[in-house]
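Q: I'm a student working through a structural biology exercise. My instructor gave each of us a protein and asked us to get a predicted structure, then write a short paragraph describing it. Mine is Pyrroline-5-carboxylate reductase. I'm not confident about reading structure output yet, so if you can add a plain explanation after the C-alpha coordinates, that would really help. Here is the sequence I was given:
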Amino acid sequence: MTAESGASLLLVGCGKMGGAMLDGWLAAGIASRVVVVDRAGLPQSVAGDARVTLVSGADALPEGFVPDVIVLAVKPQVMEEALPSYRALVRPGTVFLSIAAGKTIAWFERLLGEGAVVVRSMPNTPAAIGRGMTVAVPNARVSAAQRDLSDRLLRAVGDVAWVEDEGLLDPVTAVSGSGPAYVFFLVEAMAKAGEAAGLPADLAMRLARATVSGAGALLDASVQQQAADLRKAVTSPNGTTQAALEVLMAPEGMQPVMTAAIAAATRRSRELAG
Ligand SMILES: NC(=O)C1=CN([C@@H]2O[C@H](COP(=O)(O)OP(=O)(O)OC[C@H]3O[C@@H](n4cnc5c(N)ncnc54)[C@H](O)[C@@H]3O)[C@@H](O)[C@H]2O)C=CC1
Ligand SMILES: O=C(O)[C@@H]1CCC=N1
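A: Happy to help. First, here is the predicted structure for Pyrroline-5-carboxylate reductase. I'll explain a few features afterward.
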Protein backbone atom coordinates (compact mmCIF):
# COMPACT_ATOMS: atom_id res chain seq x y z
CA MET A 1 0.00 0.00 0.00
CA THR A 2 1.10 3.58 -0.65
CA ALA A 3 -0.53 6.74 0.70
CA GLU A 4 -1.60 7.55 -2.86
CA SER A 5 -3.11 4.16 -3.67
CA GLY A 6 -5.04 3.74 -0.41
CA ALA A 7 -5.40 0.68 1.78
CA SER A 8 -6.72 -2.70 0.83
CA LEU A 9 -9.15 -3.84 3.53
CA LEU A 10 -11.08 -6.94 4.50
CA LEU A 11 -14.07 -6.23 6.72
CA VAL A 12 -15.48 -9.27 8.53
CA GLY A 13 -18.96 -8.30 9.77
CA CYS A 14 -20.74 -5.27 8.37
CA GLY A 15 -23.42 -4.57 10.97
CA LYS A 16 -23.91 -1.44 13.05
CA MET A 17 -20.23 -0.83 13.85
CA GLY A 18 -18.60 -2.39 10.79
CA GLY A 19 -21.04 -0.52 8.52
CA ALA A 20 -20.38 2.82 10.26
CA MET A 21 -16.63 2.32 9.92
CA LEU A 22 -16.94 1.35 6.26
CA ASP A 23 -18.87 4.58 5.56
CA GLY A 24 -16.11 6.55 7.31
CA TRP A 25 -13.26 4.93 5.34
CA LEU A 26 -14.99 5.48 2.02
CA ALA A 27 -15.84 9.11 2.85
CA ALA A 28 -12.25 9.78 3.95
CA GLY A 29 -10.84 8.10 0.82
CA ILE A 30 -8.54 5.88 2.92
CA ALA A 31 -9.50 2.62 1.24
CA SER A 32 -8.85 1.77 -2.39
CA ARG A 33 -10.56 -1.59 -2.00
CA VAL A 34 -12.74 -3.14 0.70
CA VAL A 35 -13.85 -6.75 0.55
CA VAL A 36 -16.75 -7.29 2.97
CA VAL A 37 -17.68 -10.68 4.39
CA ASP A 38 -21.26 -10.66 5.65
CA ARG A 39 -24.14 -12.92 4.62
CA ALA A 40 -26.56 -10.16 5.63
CA GLY A 41 -25.33 -7.98 2.75
CA LEU A 42 -24.08 -4.40 2.51
CA PRO A 43 -25.63 -1.25 3.99
CA GLN A 44 -27.59 0.91 1.51
CA SER A 45 -25.03 3.70 1.96
CA VAL A 46 -22.29 1.78 0.10
CA ALA A 47 -24.43 0.13 -2.58
CA GLY A 48 -22.90 0.75 -5.99
CA ASP A 49 -19.50 1.92 -4.63
CA ALA A 50 -16.95 0.34 -6.99
CA ARG A 51 -14.37 0.08 -4.20
CA VAL A 52 -16.54 -2.38 -2.22
CA THR A 53 -16.98 -6.11 -2.96
CA LEU A 54 -19.36 -8.27 -0.94
CA VAL A 55 -18.58 -11.97 -0.45
CA SER A 56 -20.46 -14.59 1.55
CA GLY A 57 -17.54 -16.12 3.43
CA ALA A 58 -13.78 -16.51 3.83
CA ASP A 59 -13.86 -19.26 1.20
CA ALA A 60 -15.14 -16.77 -1.41
CA LEU A 61 -12.40 -14.11 -1.16
CA PRO A 62 -11.15 -12.80 -4.52
CA GLU A 63 -8.20 -14.77 -5.89
CA GLY A 64 -4.86 -13.36 -4.73
CA PHE A 65 -6.49 -10.79 -2.40
CA VAL A 66 -3.95 -9.67 0.22
CA PRO A 67 -5.40 -7.06 2.60
CA ASP A 68 -3.33 -4.53 4.53
CA VAL A 69 -5.87 -4.70 7.36
CA ILE A 70 -8.52 -7.26 8.32
CA VAL A 71 -11.13 -5.52 10.47
CA LEU A 72 -12.90 -8.02 12.72
CA ALA A 73 -16.38 -6.63 13.47
CA VAL A 74 -18.50 -9.67 14.31
CA LYS A 75 -20.01 -10.30 17.75
CA PRO A 76 -17.53 -11.70 20.30
CA GLN A 77 -19.63 -14.88 20.54
CA VAL A 78 -19.24 -15.43 16.75
CA MET A 79 -15.53 -14.64 16.62
CA GLU A 80 -14.28 -18.09 17.69
CA GLU A 81 -16.16 -19.79 14.87
CA ALA A 82 -15.30 -17.14 12.25
CA LEU A 83 -11.64 -16.50 12.99
CA PRO A 84 -9.89 -19.77 12.02
CA SER A 85 -10.96 -19.23 8.38
CA TYR A 86 -8.64 -16.21 8.26
CA ARG A 87 -5.52 -17.97 9.60
CA ALA A 88 -4.23 -18.36 6.04
CA LEU A 89 -4.04 -14.56 5.77
CA VAL A 90 -1.65 -14.19 8.74
CA ARG A 91 1.54 -12.49 7.50
CA PRO A 92 3.76 -9.63 8.72
CA GLY A 93 2.15 -7.19 6.26
CA THR A 94 -1.45 -7.73 7.40
CA VAL A 95 -2.95 -6.26 10.59
CA PHE A 96 -5.89 -7.96 12.31
CA LEU A 97 -7.83 -5.01 13.78
CA SER A 98 -10.51 -6.19 16.22
CA ILE A 99 -13.34 -4.07 17.58
CA ALA A 100 -14.89 -6.95 19.55
CA ALA A 101 -15.68 -6.48 23.22
CA GLY A 102 -13.61 -8.60 25.57
CA LYS A 103 -11.51 -10.58 23.09
CA THR A 104 -7.88 -10.18 24.11
CA ILE A 105 -4.72 -9.95 22.04
CA ALA A 106 -3.57 -13.27 23.58
CA TRP A 107 -6.87 -14.85 22.49
CA PHE A 108 -6.34 -13.67 18.88
CA GLU A 109 -2.73 -14.90 18.93
CA ARG A 110 -3.93 -18.27 20.17
CA LEU A 111 -6.47 -18.66 17.35
CA LEU A 112 -4.45 -17.05 14.57
CA GLY A 113 -0.97 -18.17 15.58
CA GLU A 114 1.91 -16.39 17.28
CA GLY A 115 2.92 -14.52 14.11
CA ALA A 116 -0.32 -12.53 13.91
CA VAL A 117 -0.12 -8.74 13.86
CA VAL A 118 -3.01 -7.60 16.08
CA VAL A 119 -4.60 -4.32 17.16
CA ARG A 120 -7.41 -4.58 19.73
CA SER A 121 -9.71 -1.59 19.80
CA MET A 122 -13.01 -0.39 21.24
CA PRO A 123 -15.02 2.22 19.29
CA ASN A 124 -18.59 3.39 19.99
CA THR A 125 -21.74 4.06 17.95
CA PRO A 126 -21.34 7.85 17.53
CA ALA A 127 -18.85 6.62 14.89
CA ALA A 128 -21.94 6.51 12.64
CA ILE A 129 -21.83 10.34 12.49
CA GLY A 130 -18.03 10.66 12.64
CA ARG A 131 -18.17 11.38 16.41
CA GLY A 132 -16.91 8.06 17.75
CA MET A 133 -14.34 7.58 20.51
CA THR A 134 -11.98 4.64 20.07
CA VAL A 135 -9.24 3.30 22.33
CA ALA A 136 -6.68 0.95 20.76
CA VAL A 137 -3.79 -1.23 21.89
CA PRO A 138 -1.26 -2.89 19.55
CA ASN A 139 0.58 -6.19 19.98
CA ALA A 140 4.37 -6.27 19.75
CA ARG A 141 4.37 -7.11 16.01
CA VAL A 142 2.54 -3.96 14.89
CA SER A 143 4.97 -1.74 12.98
CA ALA A 144 4.90 2.06 13.17
CA ALA A 145 3.39 2.20 9.66
CA GLN A 146 0.71 -0.34 10.62
CA ARG A 147 -0.14 1.58 13.77
CA ASP A 148 -0.42 4.73 11.66
CA LEU A 149 -2.74 3.01 9.17
CA SER A 150 -4.87 1.56 11.99
CA ASP A 151 -5.04 5.01 13.54
CA ARG A 152 -6.24 6.54 10.26
CA LEU A 153 -8.92 3.88 9.86
CA LEU A 154 -10.22 4.44 13.39
CA ARG A 155 -9.85 8.24 13.18
CA ALA A 156 -12.04 8.27 10.04
CA VAL A 157 -15.01 7.85 12.42
CA GLY A 158 -13.92 10.01 15.35
CA ASP A 159 -11.24 10.50 18.00
CA VAL A 160 -8.65 7.85 18.91
CA ALA A 161 -6.52 7.20 22.00
CA TRP A 162 -3.78 4.56 22.11
CA VAL A 163 -2.82 2.79 25.34
CA GLU A 164 -0.06 0.30 26.14
CA ASP A 165 -1.87 -1.45 29.02
CA GLU A 166 -4.41 -3.83 27.46
CA GLY A 167 -6.13 -4.26 30.85
CA LEU A 168 -7.58 -0.78 30.39
CA LEU A 169 -9.71 -1.99 27.47
CA ASP A 170 -12.29 -3.57 29.82
CA PRO A 171 -13.12 -0.33 31.71
CA VAL A 172 -12.78 1.56 28.40
CA THR A 173 -15.49 -0.70 26.98
CA ALA A 174 -17.62 -0.02 30.07
CA VAL A 175 -17.26 3.77 29.85
CA SER A 176 -17.10 4.74 26.17
CA GLY A 177 -18.00 1.54 24.30
CA SER A 178 -21.26 0.97 26.16
CA GLY A 179 -21.58 4.58 27.32
CA PRO A 180 -23.88 5.88 24.55
CA ALA A 181 -26.54 3.46 25.85
CA TYR A 182 -26.38 5.05 29.31
CA VAL A 183 -26.93 8.49 27.78
CA PHE A 184 -29.89 7.26 25.73
CA PHE A 185 -31.31 5.67 28.88
CA LEU A 186 -30.91 9.03 30.62
CA VAL A 187 -33.21 10.50 27.94
CA GLU A 188 -35.74 7.73 28.57
CA ALA A 189 -35.53 8.20 32.36
CA MET A 190 -35.88 12.01 32.17
CA ALA A 191 -38.90 11.68 29.88
CA LYS A 192 -40.55 9.16 32.20
CA ALA A 193 -39.87 11.38 35.22
CA GLY A 194 -41.29 14.38 33.33
CA GLU A 195 -44.46 12.41 32.68
CA ALA A 196 -44.66 11.51 36.37
CA ALA A 197 -44.40 15.25 37.13
CA GLY A 198 -47.41 15.97 34.88
CA LEU A 199 -46.06 16.53 31.34
CA PRO A 200 -47.74 14.93 28.31
CA ALA A 201 -45.60 11.98 27.09
CA ASP A 202 -44.65 13.49 23.72
CA LEU A 203 -43.63 16.83 25.23
CA ALA A 204 -41.64 15.07 27.99
CA MET A 205 -39.70 13.04 25.40
CA ARG A 206 -39.12 16.10 23.19
CA LEU A 207 -37.72 18.04 26.17
CA ALA A 208 -35.52 15.16 27.37
CA ARG A 209 -34.09 14.55 23.89
CA ALA A 210 -33.42 18.21 23.15
CA THR A 211 -31.88 18.73 26.59
CA VAL A 212 -29.45 15.81 26.38
CA SER A 213 -28.38 16.57 22.81
CA GLY A 214 -28.19 20.33 23.49
CA ALA A 215 -26.17 19.80 26.68
CA GLY A 216 -23.85 17.42 24.77
CA ALA A 217 -23.32 20.04 22.07
CA LEU A 218 -22.65 22.71 24.72
CA LEU A 219 -20.13 20.44 26.42
CA ASP A 220 -18.47 19.85 23.07
CA ALA A 221 -18.27 23.59 22.34
CA SER A 222 -16.96 24.44 25.84
CA VAL A 223 -13.38 23.24 25.47
CA GLN A 224 -12.09 25.48 28.27
CA GLN A 225 -14.68 24.32 30.81
CA GLN A 226 -15.05 21.16 32.83
CA ALA A 227 -18.38 19.33 32.96
CA ALA A 228 -18.59 20.40 36.63
CA ASP A 229 -18.28 24.09 35.60
CA LEU A 230 -21.16 23.71 33.13
CA ARG A 231 -23.22 21.99 35.85
CA LYS A 232 -22.51 24.84 38.28
CA ALA A 233 -23.57 27.40 35.63
CA VAL A 234 -27.06 25.86 35.60
CA THR A 235 -27.32 25.69 39.39
CA SER A 236 -28.72 28.83 41.06
CA PRO A 237 -28.25 28.95 44.85
CA ASN A 238 -31.29 27.44 46.48
CA GLY A 239 -32.99 27.09 43.08
CA THR A 240 -34.61 24.21 41.21
CA THR A 241 -31.41 22.57 39.92
CA GLN A 242 -29.91 22.50 43.41
CA ALA A 243 -33.04 20.73 44.64
CA ALA A 244 -32.61 18.04 41.96
CA LEU A 245 -28.85 17.70 42.42
CA GLU A 246 -29.27 17.17 46.15
CA VAL A 247 -31.10 13.98 45.16
CA LEU A 248 -28.77 12.96 42.29
CA MET A 249 -25.54 13.76 44.18
CA ALA A 250 -26.60 12.28 47.53
CA PRO A 251 -24.38 9.43 48.83
CA GLU A 252 -27.02 6.94 47.64
CA GLY A 253 -27.73 8.95 44.44
CA MET A 254 -26.46 8.57 40.89
CA GLN A 255 -22.71 8.10 41.53
CA PRO A 256 -22.91 4.70 43.28
CA VAL A 257 -25.38 3.50 40.64
CA MET A 258 -23.09 4.61 37.79
CA THR A 259 -20.05 3.10 39.53
CA ALA A 260 -21.89 -0.22 39.92
CA ALA A 261 -23.07 -0.15 36.28
CA ILE A 262 -19.57 0.48 34.96
CA ALA A 263 -18.12 -2.21 37.24
CA ALA A 264 -20.73 -4.67 35.87
CA ALA A 265 -19.84 -3.83 32.25
CA THR A 266 -16.11 -4.12 33.05
CA ARG A 267 -16.66 -7.56 34.59
CA ARG A 268 -18.71 -8.65 31.54
CA SER A 269 -15.96 -7.47 29.19
CA ARG A 270 -13.48 -9.64 31.11
CA GLU A 271 -15.87 -12.62 30.91
CA LEU A 272 -16.22 -12.19 27.11
CA ALA A 273 -12.46 -12.80 26.81
CA GLY A 274 -13.43 -16.50 26.80
N1 LIG B 1 -22.75 -1.86 18.92
C1 LIG B 1 -21.87 -1.18 19.65
O1 LIG B 1 -22.20 -0.19 20.32
C2 LIG B 1 -20.44 -1.60 19.66
C3 LIG B 1 -20.05 -2.84 19.23
N2 LIG B 1 -18.73 -3.20 19.29
C4 LIG B 1 -18.31 -4.52 18.85
O2 LIG B 1 -18.52 -4.56 17.46
C5 LIG B 1 -18.79 -5.90 17.05
C6 LIG B 1 -20.01 -5.91 16.16
O3 LIG B 1 -21.10 -5.40 16.89
P1 LIG B 1 -22.36 -4.75 16.14
O4 LIG B 1 -21.90 -4.05 14.92
O5 LIG B 1 -23.10 -4.04 17.19
O6 LIG B 1 -23.15 -6.07 15.75
P2 LIG B 1 -24.12 -6.32 14.51
O7 LIG B 1 -24.94 -7.51 14.88
O8 LIG B 1 -24.81 -5.05 14.12
O9 LIG B 1 -23.10 -6.71 13.34
C7 LIG B 1 -22.47 -7.95 13.25
C8 LIG B 1 -22.47 -8.38 11.79
O10 LIG B 1 -21.71 -9.57 11.66
C9 LIG B 1 -22.33 -10.38 10.66
N3 LIG B 1 -21.83 -11.75 10.82
C10 LIG B 1 -22.26 -12.71 11.67
N4 LIG B 1 -21.50 -13.82 11.53
C11 LIG B 1 -20.56 -13.53 10.58
C12 LIG B 1 -19.48 -14.25 10.03
N5 LIG B 1 -19.18 -15.51 10.41
N6 LIG B 1 -18.72 -13.64 9.10
C13 LIG B 1 -18.97 -12.38 8.71
N7 LIG B 1 -19.99 -11.63 9.21
C14 LIG B 1 -20.77 -12.21 10.13
C15 LIG B 1 -23.81 -10.19 10.90
O11 LIG B 1 -24.57 -10.53 9.74
C16 LIG B 1 -23.87 -8.70 11.24
O12 LIG B 1 -24.13 -7.90 10.08
C17 LIG B 1 -18.97 -6.71 18.33
O13 LIG B 1 -17.83 -7.51 18.52
C18 LIG B 1 -19.10 -5.68 19.42
O14 LIG B 1 -18.53 -6.12 20.64
C19 LIG B 1 -17.75 -2.34 19.70
C20 LIG B 1 -18.10 -1.09 20.11
C21 LIG B 1 -19.45 -0.62 20.17
O1 LIG C 1 -22.74 -4.30 24.47
C1 LIG C 1 -21.69 -4.73 23.96
O2 LIG C 1 -21.20 -5.81 24.33
C2 LIG C 1 -21.02 -3.92 22.87
C3 LIG C 1 -19.61 -3.53 23.25
C4 LIG C 1 -19.68 -2.08 23.59
C5 LIG C 1 -21.00 -1.68 23.12
N1 LIG C 1 -21.70 -2.67 22.69
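A: Here are two points you could use in your paragraph. The mean pLDDT is 96. The CA atoms of residues 193 and 204 lie 8 Å apart. It's a good idea to check both against the output above yourself.
Q: Great, thank you!
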